[in-house]
Write a structure and sequence with these properties.
Layout lengths: L2 E5 L9 E2 H9 L3 E5 L4 E4 L11 E6 L4 E7 L6 E8 L2 H21 L20 H20 L2 E9 L3 H5 L6 H5 L5 H10 L14 E5 L14 E5 H7 L4 H4 L4 H12 L3 H18 L5 E5 H10 L6 H6 L16 E5 L8 E3 L5 E4 L14 E6 L6 E8 L5 E5 L4 E6 L3 E5 L4 E3 L1
Parallel strand pairs: 1-4, 5-8, 7-12, 8-11
Antiparallel strand pairs: 1-2, 3-4, 5-6, 6-7, 9-10, 12-20, 13-14, 15-16, 15-19, 16-17, 17-18
């Protein structure tokens, strides 16, 4: 079952406990809720002599989602799992919109303004904001989990595909490539590249075979740019024909395949850009970091017959992966939303100021985005309302609940459940 994090009165992390034990501690008033997401209890006494089993935090970074798993290496138990949804593409769209509005605004000025596009030199190791946010999100969650769990080591999927291993099978010895791991790196790369469907007919959810675009019998190479995925029917039908003869009646598909064969993966490019920056951040934590490839992750998952998901992939990262116990694990779904905006005023779609933006962040101890519980005892809005609030200087707040928006709740009725931290949870 899913575990609950526990810290003692000195805020030292203990080993996570079963949810039934957590309920018993709360019922007997031996512990209190320290944090809602991830759910953590704080005991009312210290445990100096308590031996705590250390855990390994594993990370499977992706362009849109990152899998996170806390694994006990000795028992194989997955103690905690989460899937973190990044906002990199939202940041890119916001920057594009801001640039367009700024240029439009400056073009409306009649006076001459000298261009200043060469006056900034990015520092060494600079990443675009949309990429840097992915690194910062993972760094934040590593820091969060280290405060509530005893983590002795980290694991990261460093490369989506081991390209050196694909090009040179002997780079880590014959046994590595010719043993049970043979072909996993190449096949996983091709599955991503060809969208897990037959390149010739587009069929999905069938067994796919690795096929040479230009046949070996006519001088085709084993290069990764000459490989595609094909269903058995198309593979047999094509045989040793040249692709131009095989698809001479479908020139559009022929052109598409030849372009796709040389095109790199877009999502893989985003991950590859940030992988070394992320590795430096993890190594700066002072913990030993184990790295692995996407092919090895899939091999570990396939050997244990586990279903594919981001958090399961994270648990399968690296050579140290034990026989995993994932029974009853429910991942925490985390979405990065950011901390709001620093705009001095809101604008319309043309960039003109349209409404005022308050400079005061906190009102009566609350800020927009906090999760609160409001117990209203009188008036038209009697009841218990739980959700995120939008604050006003008047002290009359709006609460977004599962049932809908509740307007005009006084701040005196509100009590914090979880303070705004830039993330939403499910």
């Amino acid at each position: 079952m899913s575990k609950v994090f526990v810290i003692d009165s000195e805020k030292r992390p203990l080993y996570p406990i079963h949810s039934a034990q957590a309920r018993q501690l709360l019922r007997n008033k031996k512990a209190a809720v320290y944090r809602r997401f991830p759910f953590t209890l704080i005991l009312k006494q210290s445990h100096f002599d308590c031996l705590v089993t250390p855990l390994r935090l594993k990370i499977d970074p992706g362009a849109k989602h990152t899998g996170i798993a806390l694994v006990n290496d000795s028992t194989g138990e997955v103690v905690f799992a989460a899937e973190l949804k990044h906002r990199g593409f939202a940041i890119r769209e916001s920057l594009t919109s801001r640039r367009q509005i700024r240029r439009s605004r400056r073009n409306r000025k009649t006076r001459y303004r000298q261009s200043r596009f060469l006056n900034r030199t990015p520092p060494k190791g600079w990443l675009a904001p949309s990429l840097q946010s992915r690194v910062e999100n993972i760094k934040t969650w590593v820091s969060k989990l280290r405060k509530i769990a005893l983590i002795e080591a980290l694991g990261q999927e460093l490369v989506r595909f081991d390209m050196q291993l694909i090009r040179n099978p002997d780079i880590q010895g014959n046994e590595y490539q010719q043993g049970t791991l043979a072909g996993y790196e190449t096949r996983e790369f091709l599955l991503e590249k060809w969208n897990r469907q037959c390149a010739y007919c587009g069929i999905k959810d069938v067994s796919l075979q690795v096929e040479h675009i230009h046949p070996r019998a006519k001088g085709g190479s084993n290069s990764i740019t000459n490989l595609a995925l094909s269903c058995e029917k198309c593979n047999v039908k094509k045989g040793t024909k040249d692709i131009k003869d095989f698809l001479k009646k479908d020139p559009a598909r022929l052109e598409k395949i030849l372009k796709q064969a040389k095109r790199p993966l877009a999502d893989a490019a985003a991950v590859n850009t940030t992988r070394w920056a992320l590795l430096e951040v993890l190594e700066a934590s002072g913990l030993p970091v184990e790295t692995g490839s996407g092919g090895l992750t899939k091999f570990n998952r396939s050997q244990q017959h586990l279903t594919k998901s981001h958090w399961v992939d994270a648990a399968c990262v690296g050579k140290s992966t034990p026989i995993l116990n994932i029974k009853g694990v429910k991942p925490l779904m985390v979405t990065a939303n950011g901390h709001g905006t620093r705009q001095l005023c809101r604008t319309d779609k043309y960039g003109f100021p349209s409404r005022h933006c308050s400079r005061t962040k906190f009102h009566f101890g609350f800020q927009t985005g906090d999760i609160v519980q409001a117990i209203v005892t009188s008036g038209k809005k009697v009841g218990v309302h739980v959700g995120r609030i939008a604050t006003r200087a008047t002290g009359s707040f709006n609460i977004s609940t599962k049932e809908g928006l509740v307007q005009g709740i006084g701040h005196k009725y509100c009590k914090h459940v979880h303070k705004k931290d830039g993330y939403s949870y499910a």
